[in-house]
Known about the structure:
By secondary structure, this protein is of the alpha/beta class.
Amino acid sequence: MNNRVAGRVAAMSGAALAMALAATPAHAEKIANSYICVFKKDRVAKDEVSGRANAMARAHGGAVKFVYKNTIRGFAANMSEQAVTAMRRANPTIAYCEQDQVANAIGVAGKGKPGGGTAPAQFTPWGVGRVFGGTIDSSTKTAWIIDSGIDPTHPDLNVDPGRSKDFTGSRSGWKDENGHGSHVAGTVGAKDNEIGVIGVAPNAKVVAVRVLDRRGSGSYSGVIAGVEYVAANGKSGEVANMSLGGPVSQALDDAVLAAASVVKFALAAGNETDDYHNHSPARAGGVSASDNVFTVSASTKTDSLASFSNFGTGIAWAEPGVQVESTYKDGGYATLSGTSMASPHLAGLMLLGTVTSGGTISGDPDGEPDKIGVK
């Protein structure tokens, strides 16, 4: 823990400290014998990627897991470090390879409530109210939720089963077994239907792109596969939300930036009380000149930077991220905290149209206060 973090932790109340620590994802890890390799685009055509990837991997004892051709041109394969080194040496068309890493959901502090029985009467969550959302029917809009899946039968969510897909290999398919993805989806577009909560862009179609397991963890290779799927199937005017991440990955950042030519992306800044440039895909919002990629920090009910939120120059928006009420797995509801909860507020706003400033937050250590995005 660095001095800045230690100082902020010492100033927290016991409840706030517990919430901040719970909202911090587990330390990300390298995944043994799993690598992501990216071709030089001027050397390998899009329709050549699959053939070349499989031939190269097989020649060095590897097995391809994913092929990418709509974002980065490359592949992920199970193979040893020595085999990857030999493969790169034998194939100058490969620009770089990086070891696969663990991705985590960002923000799980709080408690969920099981579904069943009489659904609660509808109310507007404080965050949705703060950004002036929840008033415009968005049933013709689509949000891609790259996360732990979505509850397929939640009465408060307009789920698109036809386009939803799993990249974890779960026997439950794209169904949310964690709760995180369902919570994110509800903040974006929970229905205006007299029960539960209402989303920023009510009634929006939410597509589950499941890349995280029941523990809220996944691989960067699987996350890139999810981004690849959105790039191949998304349309202009649609929005993707990524409330997940970990350490730096050039391949993941490059995939997000490429997919942003198709749909807009909202990225959670992270919960480490750290500069977001040290984390992917969060840092993709800071290195892009595109207006389609936005990294989001978390604000409190008093419009200050949340104690756990990452920060840094280049973050344009802060959205509500503390004690956010939304939908949950198994037809339930939950109150959670994290930049994971902040990012979908911006995703919903982008579905509604142009995002405007509703003021700036206080307590931002980078000296560049983030704007609170509103309708």
